Amino acid sequence: MNDKNASLFGLVRTDLEQERFSALHWEGSFADYLEILEETPRVARNAWQRLIDMVDSHGSEIGDDGQRRWRIFDDPFTEGRDAVYGLDASLVRLVQTLRAGARGLGPERRVLLLHGPVGSSKSTIVRLLKQGLERYSATEEGALYTFSWRVDGQTIPSPTHQDPLLLIPPNSRDAVLDQLNERFRGSYALGCEGELDPVSRFYYRMLMERHDGDWMQVMEHVRVQRLVLSEKDRVGIGTFQPKDEKNQDSTELTGDINYRLIAEYGSDSDPRAFNFDGEFNIANRGLLEFVEVLKLDVAFLYDLLGATQEHCIKPKKFPQTSIDEVIIGHTNEPEYKKLQSNELMEAFRDRTIKIDVPYNLAVSDEVEIYRRQYGRRGMPGRSLAPHTLEMAALWAVLTRLEDPTNPSLTLIQKCRLYDGGEVQGFTSEQVGELREAAPREGMLGISPRYVQDCIAACLVADNPVVGPLDVIASLESGLRHHSLISNDEVRKRYLQLIAVVREEYEEVIKREVQVAIAADEDAIDRLCAKYLDNVKAYTTRGHVAAEGGGEREPDERLMRSIEDNVEIPESRKDDFRHELMNYIAALTLEGKTFDYRTNERLTRALERKMFRDHRDTIQLTSLVSTVVDPDTQEKIAVIRGRLMRQFGYDELSAEAILQHVAGLFARGEARDSQADAQEAA
Q1: Residue 43, pLDDT score
Q2: Residue 289: beta bridge partners?
Q3: Which has the closest alpha carbon to 391: 377, 412, 373?
Q4: What whole-number distance in Å separates Cα of residue 408 and Cα of residue 11?
Q5: How many CA atoms lie within 13 A of 651 on its CB side?
Q6: Which of 94, 103, 110, 249 is the most exposed, having the fewest neighbouring CB atoms within 10 Å of its CB?
Q7: What backbone phi and psi angles, to 5 degrees, belong to 142?
Q8: Taking a C-beta distance cutoff of 8 angstroms, is the pair 197, 159 a contact?
Q9: Neighbours of 164 (CB within 10 A)
Q10: What number is the average pLDDT over the span 148-155?
Q11: At what angle do helices 600-618 and 556-563 cross, to 10 degrees?
Q12: How far apart are CA 570 and CA 579, in angstroms?
């Protein structure tokens, strides 16, 4: 072995955590386990209690909207790759349900049913809970234990990884639990329900007979081990996915007879000749996920009802067998509607707690989904222009919203309100009313997966820079053969929303170009000061200092030239000016200084005024002509540089939007000229 390999080998050996390995593979007697239990009562938690403690262990925070967000759903395991965005209300309800189940208030005897459209993160939520539970069980705080039998030189593990507390006779169990709860300081009471599984019951009875009922001697045959949950090893974490009706077999849930061992033990009802390896068995002590649970055969649902309500399953040829696990299923909208209309499924509906998991209704949250996949890892030779993900997300969210009933509110404005933005004349209370008036929003619309597919199609094309218009075009073309849209009216509406998003994008880039052209901040500051002096004089019926000395009347033409840029009508100018002055006065009383940049409408008005004053000198529309003089080229280069510095464009994407905006202005000027000619005629 050369020196280089030796050093690498040394690094590997250094990284081995032998102490941790020993802790996770701890083994001892039943008496040793009782000592651990006495010192750390929390190891006796049931599956619901352990799951909620795992969620709490990751912590939570209060968002800007006042909603609590549980950090486990930020995916701390894979650096946010599976983080869930925009579903805080649904996740809060899920966590509250888990907490109620941990306290024994009823949900622990129900199936948790995550209900929502395809691609709304239902399976991702369960996957994060499973990953969290696996890792938690490998920590000191999340430690749990199981046992095995040592009989006649053989080691026979508990096939369902049962809690060693079940070995304590029922008449003594309450006294042990009372003592444990005196030491335990949790928000719930520790308990121990159920009986030993058939295999453990068989050896327990055999050994009791062998030792003439001496329980202490029977416990000498018990070895307790640390239990680490693992979905891959089928220990404490199970997943069941329905197959077609012909291939469904309930033994996949409850286990099956091992025909090879019947000859050895002489009976198919001997527990030693049975494989307790169904999903219910292996998920004991942890969590069982049912994928598309409502596609299960009715026979499966009966097993599911018993597992939830009675915490028991019925293996073939054996009595009811106790289980301790959280059962979470998920389903989509069509399957749930079938459940509602099926009277035979009333018992199942009565034993489920439905938690809606809708699509995102906030553009910023939807953007995070796409940025998670495309924004944090670039493709060689490809880049995304600014606003690309935002425009894709905007369209996706618009498809999920209902048209507002308020005639003064557009769909874009409603979308802006849902994302925490401001719209003149609407308060946060009214936003809540809008949500309440449309409870089905988010349960219909376009899946994030469709948008991701369209973005991916653009990224593998030849263009080095993928921009919003590329993705918008991809979204539009894909709609014509989208497999999940069979209604022509729905397709027509989605296409109309494409046009809305394209128009919104053009407004965004026109403003950015305007800002780049009018980027002289000192000039804007001077313009703002001049405007405020005139507004103050107007609202107080005073005068403005004239440049050559003396005083003059407020400059109405200047004020209106600014206010017109944000479409403040003549009839509303007094209200706008007085509101502005009152706001500035309130800041002054608080010892604060007014900054126009904090007022979006005023900022936009000043920028547009500066743009219009400078547009003729820049001659932006000359970009679409074939001949551009050196002086104009130099000015345009300055604008391009400002776009790159201020808004994050690279040279190619900055050039692209300048060309596009120039075309928009050219078409606008052409329309204005045509209108003037018609008016003159």
Answers
A1: 95
A2: 239, 328
A3: 412
A4: 67
A5: 1
A6: 249
A7: -100, 15
A8: yes
A9: 25
A10: 94
A11: 100
A12: 15
